[in-house]
Design a protein that fits this description.
Helices cover 34% and strands 19% of the residues. By secondary structure, it is an alpha/beta fold. The protein has a 4-stranded parallel β-sheet, sandwiched between helices. The chain is globular, with a radius of gyration of 11 Å.
C-alpha cells in the first residue's frame, strides 16, 4: 500500500516528524510516498493539506485524517 502524508498531523501523530511518519508507514507494511499519483493507495491529510488533497480527490484516492490513520496502524505507533 502506497501512503502519502500531507499537512499538519494531530492527535497521537502530532509529535512525529515527517521522517518518523514515513518510518511508521514502513513498519506497518506500507510504502511511503512523497507525491500523489494514481498509484497512491491512501492519503493522510492533516490540517492545511492543500493541493495534494485536491489532487487525491480528483484521482479518487482514499483520504483519511490523522486520527483515523492512527486507529488503522495503532499497534505500530
Amino acid at each position: 500500500m502506497s501512503v502519502m502524508v500531507t499537512g499538519s498531523m494531530s492527535g497521537a501523530l502530532e509529535a512525529l516528524t515527517r521522517n518518523q511518519m514515513n518510518e511508521l508507514i514502513e513498519r506497518a507494511g506500507g510504502k511511503s510516498s512523497s507525491s500523489v499519483s494514481a498509484k497512491t493507495s491512501l492519503l493522510v491529510a492533516g490540517e492545511n493539506a492543500g493541493s495534494k488533497r485536491a489532487k487525491a480527490e480528483s484521482l479518487g484516492v482514499r483520504i483519511v485524517d490523522p486520527e483515523e490513520f492512527a486507529d488503522l496502524i495503532g499497534p505500530f505507533i
